[in-house]
């Protein structure tokens, strides 16, 4: 996309977010649902199609372009972004990278149009960060596979039309986690059941539920790439761009939260003057701005590297770690600046404080990012 077109797109999303989404935040939080007309708007605006190549009906944006759109939409509650976020990353990139030509031709246009909302099924009751220990099984039976197991905390599960499911195709743990394969499972598959919507700390409107497979029969053609043992590799390959996307969500949320804090500081008066005149309040604002600036620079750098074809697993983990911790710090300071008002549920910063906590957990916890970064740095030192 040329710069002028991208700038127009970004401006359109910016205005739409502020004029349409921000006023709906409280309604979405109360009803725990995104209005259908908003989802229809997202489809029309092309938000489901940002990362899908043009040959499959998408916009084919690079990571540097994608994050500009995501940062604008996440000026509002991050729950709005969740409905299309997986279509941009984990739900589509695995098909794009490793799917068969037939799988790409069938699913990617539906994903890009928003006709199909995607869901990514990796986490289980007994395997979260240790994803290679998953127990869901897919057993070959003639021209089919029989899928059995439980997936936990699955985003978009109640509304998804396609589930990318990781399952064991070998009882034994194989080298390079070759015992894990990926399957494309349509909603409504017999033997597949969606659990009740989870009640979460934050991000109401972003739907999460367990997914159960009770001897669900799926055709062998649903095996991603037509080859067993590639599921874990596929999942790991999609995570770099996914973590960059999460980092951009953190930056978008941090911008909004800092705006709320600064606006309150210049309007709230104590001791006869705005509290923003007090140096300790200014210190919290200054630390927040410095944190945000550092995150923006890191995000721009890793997105540019990704688009150039550079291997960025280390940088993506650094960005995800720093940005998710950064937005948590800014949210905490914003509540403190608001004082008692920040603790009340009718305050935007109270809601954001709860909403952003998840970013340190999903798509790899802070601690998993630390392990990835530490091991990579030490491996490079040893190699040198």
Task: Please give a structural write-up.
The protein has 384 residues and is an alpha+beta fold. It has helices spanning 3-21, 25-31, 36-45, 63-73, 78-88, 90-98, 101-113, 231-267, 279-307, 313-338, 348-355, 366-383, and strands at 118-121, 137-141, 144-155, 162-168, 180-186, 192-194, 208-219, 269-270, 273-274. The strands form three sheets. A four-stranded antiparallel sheet has the order 2-3-7-6, with no helix packed on it. A hairpin with a 2-residue loop joins β2 (137-141) and β3. α5 packs antiparallel against α8 (231-267) and α6 (90-98) runs antiparallel to α7 (101-113). It is globular and about 80 Å long. The model has no long low-confidence stretch (mean pLDDT 95).
Structural class, please?
alpha+beta
Strand order of the largest sheet: 2-3-7-6
* Most strands sheet: 4 strands, antiparallel
Percentage of residues in helical conformation = 40-55%
Mean of pLDDT = 95
Distance between the termini: 40 Å
Q: Please mark out the parts with pLDDT under 50 across 5 or more consecutive residues, or reply none.
A: none
User: What oligomeric state do these chains adopt?
Assistant: single chain
Give the helices and strands as they follow along the chain. HHHHHHHEEEEEEEHEEHHHH
Q: What is the alpha-carbon Rg in Å?
A: 21 Å
Q: Work out the strand percent.
A: 5-15%
What's the total count of β strands? 9
- Count of runs of 4 or more consecutive helical residues: 12
The best one-word shape is: globular
